[in-house]
Write a structure and sequence with these properties.
167 residues; mainly beta; Immunoglobulin-like; seven-stranded antiparallel β-sheet; three-stranded antiparallel β-sheet; 1 helix
Length: 167
Amino acid sequence: MKKLAFLFIAIAGFAVTSNAQVSATAASSATIITPIAIAKTADLNFGNLAVSPTVAGTVVLSPSATRTPSGGVTLPAVTGTVSAASFTVTGLGTSTFAITLPGTITLTDAGSHTMSLGSFTSTPSSTGTLAAGSATVTVGGTLTVAAAQAAGTYTNAAGLSVTVNYN
């Protein structure tokens, strides 16, 4: 009988339920921020250029619209319209954003002559910061001009594409 009582107490001891489990609840939320946007405010324009009939050259247009010729390219006294490309970036408060510039684009005249435009630079260079939800990005580049490049107005039908993304 003592063995039976001991067995009953042992089984009853293991059958006791433990309530050690507890839980808590957390709130869930999400905030959709103002989308980043970019709008062109000025086109990139190298202005008037004079070209050697025998020597190729380049013109560097800085983001501050300063032109620097080299090789067979000179800058005539009548400058024409000179401007760096300019863009307004808008978005959330003081967020930072990445700037992506194209590699190389081709400018073509009405007679299918071409020039290469590349080595793009921007101010700010690769990352910008919005001030009160807005920032300006200016872009320049290097135009490669052939010796005896045909006279005319050269444009790029696809345009100069600048991309911005929140960091």
